Amino acid sequence: MALPDASGPPRRARLWALLALGCAVLAAVTLVAEGIVGGLLVLVVGIAGAALTAMGTWWVVSHRGAVRLVGTLLMVGAPVAILLIYAQADLWPTALLAIALWAAAVACARTALRAARRPEGMRATVRADAPRSPVLIMNPKSGGGKVGRFGLVEKGEALGARVVLLDPEVVTDVAALARQAVADGADLLGVAGGDGTQARVAEVAAEYDLPFLVISAGTRNHFAMDLGLDREDPARCLDALTDGEELRVDLGVVGGHAFVNTASFGVYAEIVQRPEYRDAKADSALAALPDLLLGYAGTTLDAVTDEKRLEAQQALLVSNNPYTSSEPMGARRARLDRGELGVLGIRVNNAAQAAEVALRGARAAGLHVLTSRQVVIASAAERIAVAVDGEALTMPTPVTCSVRPGALRVRVPRLRPGAPAAAPPMQWSEVLALAFDRPGAGTTGAAGTAD
Length: 451
Known about the structure:
Blueprint: H1 11-33, H2 36-62, H3 65-88, H4 92-115, E1 126-127, E2 134-138, H5 146-149, H6 152-158, E3 162-165, H7 174-183, E4 188-192, H8 195-207, E5 211-215, H9 222-226, E6 244-254, E7 257-259, E8 262-266, H10 267-272, H11 281-293, E9 301-304, E10 309-313, E11 315-320, E12 341-346, H12 351-360, E13 367-372, E14 374-378, E15 383-388, E16 391-396, E17 399-413, H13 428-435
Parallel strand pairs: 2-3, 2-4, 4-5, 5-17
Antiparallel strand pairs: 1-6, 6-7, 6-17, 8-11, 8-15, 9-10, 9-14, 11-12, 12-13, 14-17, 15-16
C-alpha cells in the first residue's frame, strides 16, 4: 500500500518510528547496564519461561491424566519461577524496566506503521434509495436475546419492514424463508442473528442481486464488525433502511455453501460436530483435543492453494478475505473486497513445536499464513467435518473453497461507527526504513501473505 507522499514517510510516522527505536535501544542498554551475566540472565530466563509456558499449555490441551497435570503445573509454575529467579538475583527492577521499554517500543512501532499507511476501509459504491418492501428475518434467541432486548421487531416494523420471527424450538430453513420473501416481492433481505444465519440469507440475496442488511444481534458479530457496524446497539443498523448506502463485498464458498467469515477444517471443526459443544464449549473442547491433536481421532488434511501445498495439517482456517494477523479470533479483516481468501494452516505435533509457534508466530514451521483465490482440501477420509461460520457440517472430499468477488450488495447506515483500525504486521525492517526516511517505507499491506 502506497504512502501519501511517495518521496518518503510522513513526519508523524517517522517520529513514532524514531521513538520505537529509542525505546528498543534503551531496553538493550538496561540489560547491558546490569552486566553481561545479569543481562543475559534476564533475557535467557524470560525466553525459557515463555517456551516452558507454551510447552505446558500444549500438554494441557493434548494429553489427559498425569501429563495434563504436569502441563498445568508447568503452565502456572513457569511464570512464577521467572518472578522468583528475578527476585532472588535482585534483577526484578531491571527486568521490569526492560519489559516496559520493549512493550513501549512495540507499541510505538505499530503506531508508526499504522500512520505510514493510508486507511484501508471499504468505500460505499452507491448512495442507496430506501427499499419499498424490506423483509427482516430475526432469531429471538441469538446473542442472548438481543432481538427482544433492543426492541428490534417493533423498530423494524415501524420503519416499514416485514419481520419474520423464527421459532427457537423449530429447526427452520432460513434460506427457504428468504427465497419465499423474494417470491413475495421483497426488495431487501436482512438478518438479525448469528453469522451462520447471516451467511445463509446472504447467499440468497447474492443469488437475486438484492441488497442485504446485517443487524448485529449475534454473539460475536464478526461480519458486522468488519463492515463497520455498531455492535453495541444493533438497532442502529436499522438506520440503513431510511439513510443507507451500499458496499460491494465478497462472498466465500465452500463445497457449494456460502460463508461470510470462515470455513474451518480439522481440530476445531471436529469439536463443533460434538452434540455437547453448544452447551459446554470449553469443557467439550478440552475433552476432545487430546484425541484430535495426537491423531487418535480425526484426520490430517492436505491443502492446495494457488501457489503452495500444505501437507498433513491438523487444522485449516479459510477466511473470506485475509485477517490482519494469524489470530483471526482476536483480529479483523481490513477489507472484504480484495477478492481473495485468507488461509491459516497449523501442524503442531509436540511441545517443542508448540513453543516455537508461541515464540515465533507466523515464522514458525508449524504455522502457515497466506492468501489464495482457491483452496482445495483433501484427506484420506471420504468425508470431513467443516465448520462454516460456526455451523457444523460434513462434506465429501476433496472440498473446494473459492471466493465470489463483489457478489454481495450490503446495505449499511450512512452514519456508522466504522471498522476498528487494523493492527499492522510487526516488521522491524519497515520501522527502520521509516525512522531513517527511506522512500517507499511502510508500503507493505496487511498481514496474511507470509508463512
